[in-house]
Design a protein that fits this description.
By secondary structure, this protein is α/β, with parallel strands linked by helices. The protein has four domains: 154 residues, 3-Layer(aba) Sandwich (Rossmann fold); 130 residues, Beta-Lactamase (2-Layer Sandwich), CATH 3.30.450.20; 160 residues, Alpha-Beta Plaits; 254 residues, EAL domain (TIM Barrel, Alpha-Beta Barrel), CATH 3.20.20.450. The chain is built from 27 helices and 27 strands. The strands form five sheets. An eight-stranded mixed beta barrel has the order 18-19-21-22-23-24-25-26, surrounded by six helices. Strand 23, helix 23 and strand 24 form a beta-alpha-beta unit. The protein is elongated. Keywords: Phosphoprotein. Pfam families: EAL, GGDEF, PAS, Response_reg. This is EAL domain-containing protein.
């Protein structure tokens, strides 16, 4: 076996190994043991060869020992960054596609990874389906690339092995005389092109060449040099016959043929010089290779799900549009579109329906565009658009309005009628930026401004938005330091039994003693915590602080009161929440009956069975459970039967509607009746007037909290109020 044959077999083996589910070798790199174990379990059942590494040095050792088809790489490692590992691979020519997984929210990390050749960038937390789909797509792309290399290697090997084995050759082998007429052709021509060898003998080669390739063929075939450079390679499209064998018309069905032609010299009589005698050629069918190359090239620049340009192709087209706009001194618009409520559809109907929705959205958006506009999918439910050659801003506004109007119509997902909207940010060149990154960033900032103002609309970028964005970043950085600097504090709003006037409980509310902005309520900083992955450490702090404060109250000889804390859905989803709760109670010696966990109705619909299991554990421990803001979410009476609920809290939005104690407020009466019928404790929130209190008490609600009784107060003041009540 020669070297080329061995190379072809090696390439074929690589192609088989990287096929999804057929033994592809994958390196998993993450310094978080739980995430690494979860990732390993997710991929273990798919017939992959999995190798794990918990730090950069382990990853480099594995890369030095083994060849990997795919590397799933965390950017943040204890000893080096994922970017350094990718630089190591690139410097040493180590093969293998890289999927970067990171919790970093900044765009620089993603750009750095993609510049280093990463196949994709997944932001933590990612969904199971998103990860599996990305892994399958990466391996599929690798398989296609290796298939292409295998085909090329086989073609090259076949040329050397069978060039002169004409009778058994898989290629068209031919000879031409000095006039370019066919003097010999093997039987392969009939299998590939549909012509018999008899009818081609004596005909000029040009009758087989596609009209657009005639000049290229003439240049290649007219070679008359008889030195070592006489060999000529050219790719030509040859016509294929359709119909009966005697039909001499040619169809438009074309086959790509690679040709290798060599001049054949003959000695002239009476002279030492050689005269041109004819041409010997081998025509090989490379149609499959061309198609494979086209597929690989197309997939590299297009989104597989929606068939839209991906972010790479979009940036190329935006760059060209910017150059043209600069040359013509014209304006262009860049739009950033984010679908509203898409996550809800994905969570309730599943990712398959979510993908169908994205495909339908892409078709509707394309129908709204002008000729020359480019629509691309950035990823997830985000789309970008470039609108070149604007007359004025009204052109961009008109297209954005068309987008919103087209999305307003319901979507049909196999019988499920779904309604969504979109938030659209618009940046105009050159006023809002002169580079690709500036335009995209400013359009993104404008889109988030629409989100903040209620979604379902569009907004043009202006500089004040950038200032607000910088303030958010500064607030996020300060919030990260607030935990380290002990700037957070628990405040408590007492809950009063109006029949006796005594405090029977309190709701724990977080406050931030900001060094510049003063005391901030939870609503001013918790949304940033949820967006930036800080809810888990903040919730850990809140649980510990609440139990610590209860211990101080109990040590001061206080009477029995129940403190409640609001539980974030992200915190409940974490598997160790129950252990955290039990550990805090034991650490401070708190009776579980003194703690009540408040959940929102949205927790119930995210993963009902899992929520039931977690809440049942709390109840067995002795901790009670309350539904906060009852009636404002996706209410279902079945939740009250299935979930271990002890308390219902009437949302303050319903209480605010009470202006007359003699009025009729059926929603409040219905909630009170539900609580009474199910034997649940009832608390009204946001009570601010005597009329509200009298109506609620007359209707059957005797426990209330609100400014009418107490504002949220610090622990010291809360202890003082309880001690005064006891005295």
């Amino acid at each position: 076996m020669n070297a080329n044959s061995a190379a072809a077999i090696h390439i074929a083996a690589d192609a088989a190994a990287c096929a999804p589910g057929q033994g592809a070798r994958i390196l998993l790199v993450d310094d978080e043991p739980r995430l690494l174990a979860s990732l390993y379990e997710l991929l273990r059942g798919r017939d992959y060869q999995l190798v794990t590494a918990t730090c950069g040095s382990e990853a480099l050792e594995e890369l030095a020992k083994l060849r990997f088809d795919l590397i799933l790489l965390d950017l943040r490692l204890p000893d080096m960054s994922g970017h350094e590992i990718m630089d190591y691979m690139n410097d040493r020519g180590i093969e293998g596609d890289v999927i970067v997984m990171s919790g970093e929210v900044g765009i620089d990390a993603a750009i750095g990874a993609l510049k280093r050749g990463a196949y994709d960038y997944l932001r933590k937390p990612y969904s199971r389906e998103e990860l599996l789909k990305t892994v399958d797509n990466a391996l599929q792309k690798r398989r296609l690339a290796l298939d292409n290399a295998r085909i090329a290697a086989q073609l090259e090997n076949s040329e050397k092995m069978y060039r002169y084995l004409v009778d058994s050759s898989p290629d068209i082998i031919y000879t031409l005389n000095h006039e370019g007429r066919i003097t010999f052709v093997n039987d392969r021509v009939q299998q590939l092109l549909g012509f018999s060898r008899e009818e081609l003998i004596g005909r000029h080669y040009a009758t087989l060449v596609h009209d657009e390739d005639q000049e290229r063929a003439r240049y290649a075939m007219s070679e008359r040099r008889l030195d070592e450079r006489v060999s000529r390679h050219v790719e030509l499209r040859l016509k294929c016959r359709t119909g009966n064998g005697g039909d001499r018309t040619f169809s438009n069905t074309l086959t790509m043929i690679g040709m290798h032609a060599i001049g054949m010299p003959a000695p002239e009589q009476g002279s030492r010089r050689q005269a041109f005698f004819g041409t010997y050629g081998v025509a090989r069918d490379i149609t499959d290779r061309k198609r494979a190359e086209e597929v690989i090239s197309y997939q590299a620049y297009h989104d597989i799900l929606t068939d839209l340009p991906n972010r790479m192709l979009f940036k190329d087209r935006l760059g060209l549009a910017v150059i043209q706009a600069k040359r013509k001194q014209a304006e262009l618009a860049v739009m950033f579109i984010d679908l509203d409520r898409f996550k809800l559809v994905n969570d309730t109907l599943g990712h398959v329906k979510g993908d169908e929705l994205l495909q339908q959205v892409a078709l509707r958006l394309k129908d709204c565009l002008r000729r020359g506009d480019t629509l691309a999918r950035q990823g997830g439910d985000e789309f970008t658009i470039v609108l070149p050659e604007l007359r004025d801003r009204q052109d961009a506004k008109a297209i954005a309005d068309k987008f919103l109007e087209s999305l307003h119509q319901p979507f049909d997902l196999d019988g499920h009628e779904v309604h969504i909207s979109a938030s659209i940010g618009i940046a105009i060149y050159p006023g809002d930026g002169e580079t690709i990154d500036e335009l995209l960033r400013h359009a993104d900032i404008a889109m988030y401004q629409v989100k903040a103002l209620g979604k379902n609309g569009h907004s043009f970028y202006h500089n004040s938005m950038l200032d607000a964005s910088h303030q958010k970043i500064a607030l996020e950085q300060s919030l990260r330091k607030a935990l380290e600097l002990n700037e957070l504090e628990m405040y408590y709003q007492p809950q009063v039994d109006v029949a006796t006037g005594r405090i029977v409980g309190a709701e724990g509310l977080m406050r931030w003693n900001h060094p510049q902005r003063g005391l901030l309520s939870a609503g001013e900083f918790l949304p940033f915590a949820e967006e930036n992955g800080l809810m888990l450490p903040i919730s850990d702090w809140m649980l510990d602080a609440l139990c610590r404060d209860l211990a101080r109250w109990n040590a001061a000889g206080g009477e029995h009161v129940r403190l409640s804390l609001n539980l974030s859905p992200q915190y409940l989803d974490r598997g160790d929440f129950f252990e955290k709760m039990r550990g805090a109670l034991g650490r401070y010696g708190i009776a579980p009956a003194q703690i009540e966990v408040e959940i929102t109705e949205n927790i119930c619909i995210r993963n009902p069975q899992y929520a039931i299991e977690q809440l049942n554990k709390l109840c067995l421990l002795g901790v009670s459970v309350a539904i906060d803001d009852f009636g404002t979410g996706y209410s279902s009476l079945s939740y009250l039967h299935r979930f271990p609920i002890h308390t219902i809290k009437i949302d303050q939005s319903f209480v605010k509607e009470i202006h007359d104690e003699n009025g009729h407020f059926p929603v409040i009466l219905a909630i009170i009746s539900i609580a009474r019928g199910l034997g649940l404790h009832l608390i009204a929130e946001g009570v601010e007037t005597q009329a509200q209190a009298r109506y609620l008490q007359a209707s059957g609600c005797s426990t209330m909290q609100g400014y009418l009784y107490h504002r949220p107060i610090s622990l010291e003041n809360f202890i003082a109020v309880l001690q005064a009540q006891r005295a």
